[in-house]
Amino acid sequence: MLLLASCGGTKKLNYRNGRYYSASEIARMKAAERRGAGSSKTKVKTKTAGMSPGGRKIVAKGPKRASSPATANRQIASVIEEARSYQGTPYRFGGTTRLGMDCSGLLSVSFGAVGIQIPRSSNEQAAWGDPVRPQDLQTGDLVFFGASPGSTSITHVGLVTDVSSEGVQFIHSSTSLGVVENALESDYYLSRFIKAVRPKL
Looking at residues 60-86, what average pLDDT do you find? Predict the structure, then answer.
């Protein structure tokens, strides 16, 4: 198992039928599956829950907290759009270009594109904002992780791109896959989750 040391990731997430899919492709496939069910009374999930270290619940509720770049603050929507433009960029420690990008570099470049200067390292970024409870996550929040389950030392950061009844998605630069979007509710990321902050805009 590849650890999150220095902005790492894992190859297990968002795979179907032996192939990796982006978060948006997974969402489209799920929507198509729901339509294919053919029921006029299709059930809508109202919660998606997982457990973070220490037994804290991470819950994505339905319409009350649903948020996306389209409805988020325009600045945050632009930051997310910029970060997504780097999808597929390979991981490179210390990288801040399309030739290679690390996790904190992705956030620094994405916020910088809309004129917001943020700290460069994930540890400094963790102090750049107000703490947010996992159950209150919104698009644009920053999520921080450790290198191993239960760790309290931050080594990785991502940007929340979508909060819906399906769960929480975040974009980051994984050592194995480069810039990708993943589900926060996966066991891999929940076990390494440390904290979240809302950026100071």
Answer: 70
CA 192/CA 123 separation, integer angstroms: 15
Which one is catalytic: 156, 178, 180, 183? 156
As beta bridge partners, residue 143 has 158, 196
Q: Which of 23, 59, 72, 103 is catalytic?
A: 103
Residue 172 annotated among the catalytic residues of the structure: yes
**CB count, 10 Å around CB of 68?**
14
CB 80 within 8 A of CB 139: yes
Instruction: Specify whether the CB–CB gap between 80 and 142 falls below 8 A.
Output: no
- The answer to whether 125 and 136 have CB atoms below 8 angstroms apart is no
Cα separations in angstroms, 68 against 9, 85, 165, 174: 24, 16, 11, 22
28 carries an active-site annotation: no
Determine which one of 52, 109, 143, 172 is catalytic.
Answer: 172
- Confidence grade of residue 181 (pLDDT, cut at 50, 70, 90): very high
- Residue 156 catalytic? yes
Coil, helix or strand for 182? Answer: strand
